[in-house]
Design goal:
There is one protein chain. This protein has one helix at residues 261-266, and strands at residues 2-3, 9-13, 29-33, 41-45, 53-56, 60-65, 79-84, 110-112, 122-123, 135-140, 146-155, 162-173, 176-181, 187-191, 196-200, 207-210, 218-225, 233-240, 244-247, 253-255, 274-275, 280-281, 287-294, 304-312, 318-323, 327-328. With 332 residues, it is mainly beta. It has two domains: 2-200, TolB, C-terminal domain (Neuraminidase, 6 Propeller), CATH 2.120.10.30; 207-328, Immunoglobulins (Immunoglobulin-like, Sandwich). The strands form seven sheets. Strands 18, 22, 24, 25 and 26 form a five-stranded antiparallel β-sheet that branches. A four-stranded antiparallel β-sheet has the order 1-2-3-4, with no helix packed on it.
């Protein structure tokens, strides 16, 4: 269950069979009602088992969807994270993941591996882990592979198309059934099997926050926060992944694909992507600001990049090393 800003109630109603057909009009749907339960209606269809719902005003309603255990026509049906729109058909039964060209059903905002079993998600409304506006943590219930993943969702400001990616932030659980954020920004994860609640938080207080969508042709305002290292100097670094690259002072390695168009671009004289002082100086609160520029160059689209900063004092003693969340470069 979840409410929107107008106190409308959304209800996830699962299927009555493993992979269809369904015979009840409310089976495998998202329902909408007034806050007292009146005026119940079908809001969206084709959602087999929306285990969890989450809502962000101005962005929309999110539902995790568990695929069937076995569909003869598709033995490995993906699980999904869906952006739910009124009247939308999300394919069940029969369609899992992106629909064939011309099919009227809507594809997922994100496809997850078959049987990973996404459960009850939570939006990072405080933007505690990054500057991105619509970050979501999703627990994966899968037996023996319980984990919590962080999902970045980007809705195109004109077309409404959603781009997304995910990466793991914690694992080793039995069966994670629900997540939420604490007032301090930690992820609280409930494990069904162990009956324990786990607290997940970054390794330190340092953060890199990106304040715009990572689309080519844009300047992205970036802020860095290292409250434990006020007035320290810092270097800001960019990298993209495949082959080992920068070795940071704490022995962590940023990865660098020397064959990528991104690397080829920044290797040319005058082509600078990060617009930070080199070195910079954090203010008395441990804060610094700059920009990342993503040129309007189509071969960049789809590449994943990271950023990092290293703080140090006047004697070159290393203070903090912090990496950003991964960023996938998007189309304009």
């Amino acid at each position: 269950l979840v409410f929107d800003e107008n106190n409308k109630l959304y209800i996830a109603q699962g299927s009555m069979t493993d992979h269809g057909p369904e015979f009840h009009p409310y089976a495998a749907t998202i329902l909408k009602a007034n806050d007292d339960g009146t005026n119940l209606s079908v809001y969206a269809t084709g959602v087999r088992n929306a285990y969890g719902l989450e809502y962000w005003p101005g962005f929309g309603l999110i539902a995790t969807d568990n695929g069937p255990n076995m569909d003869v026509a598709n033995p490995s049906p993906v699980d999904e994270v869906n952006l739910i729109v009124q009247g939308g058909d999300y394919g069940y039964p029969g369609i899992y993941g992106n629909p064939p060209v011309g099919h009227p059903s809507l594809g997922p905002a994100l496809s997850l591996p078959a049987h990973s079993a996404p459960t009850d998600p939570a939006f990072d409304h405080q933007r505690a882990w990054s500057g991105f506006e619509h970050d979501l943590v999703v627990p994966l219930f899968a037996t023996g592979a319980g984990a919590v993943v962080r999902v970045s969702l980007f809705k195109h400001p004109i077309t409404g198309k959603v781009d997304s990616w995910f990466h793991g932030i914690a694992g080793g659980f039995s069966n994670v059934i629900s997540c939420d954020f604490s007032p301090a920004g930690a992820v609280m994860a409930a494990d069904f099997t162990t009956a324990l609640i786990y607290k997940i938080q970054p390794e330190d207080s340092a953060r890199i926050r990106f304040h715009a969508q990572p689309r080519i042709g844009t300047f992205i305002p970036v802020s860095i926060e290292a409250p434990d290292w006020p007035s320290h100097h810092y270097y800001f670094l960019m990298a993209n992944a495949n082959l080992p690259g920068y070795v940071l002072p704490n022995s962590e390695v940023l990865f660098l694909d020397v064959n990528s168009p991104l690397f080829n671009y920044i290797s040319q004289p005058g082509n600078i992507i990060d617009q930070f002082p080199f070195p910079g100086t954090l203010n008395g609160h441990g804060q610094g600001n700059g920009y990342v520029f993503l040129p309007n160059f189509a071969p960049f689209i789809g590449y994943t990049i990271w950023s990092a900063f290293v703080t140090f004092d006047g004697s070159l003693n290393i203070g903090s090393v912090s990496e950003s969340v991964p960023l996938r470069i998007l189309a304009p």
